[in-house]
Amino acid sequence: MKRKCSLCGEYKEESEFRYMNKQRRFNAYCKECEKWYHRHYVRKEKR
């Protein structure tokens, strides 16, 4: 099944999304966008 990434807007396979066990659902961002998001936003906030 295909899902739409909330960040890039592309339709990708479910295997390209990270499954979050605690929430029992797939993440809204694909794995590529999740890496980009963490690189640009999450790490800068910790400094």
Number of strands: 4
Poorly predicted spans: none
* Helix and strand sequence: EEEEH
Terminal Cα separation, in Å? 39 Å
Largest sheet: 2 strands, antiparallel
- Global outline: flat
* Mean pLDDT level: 91
Explained architecture:
- This protein has 47 residues and is of the alpha+beta class.
- The protein has one domain.
- It has one helix and four strands.
- The strands form two sheets. A two-stranded antiparallel ribbon has the order 1-2. The protein has a two-stranded antiparallel sheet with strand order 3-4.
- The longest helix has 16 residues, at 31-46.
- It is flat, with a radius of gyration of 12 Å.
- The termini are far apart.
Q: What tags apply to this protein structure?
A:
47 residues; alpha+beta; two-stranded antiparallel sheet; 1 helix; 4 strands; flat
Q: Secondary-structure map with pairings?
A:
Elements: E1 2-4, E2 11-13, E3 17-20, E4 25-30, H1 31-46
Antiparallel strand pairs: 1-2, 3-4
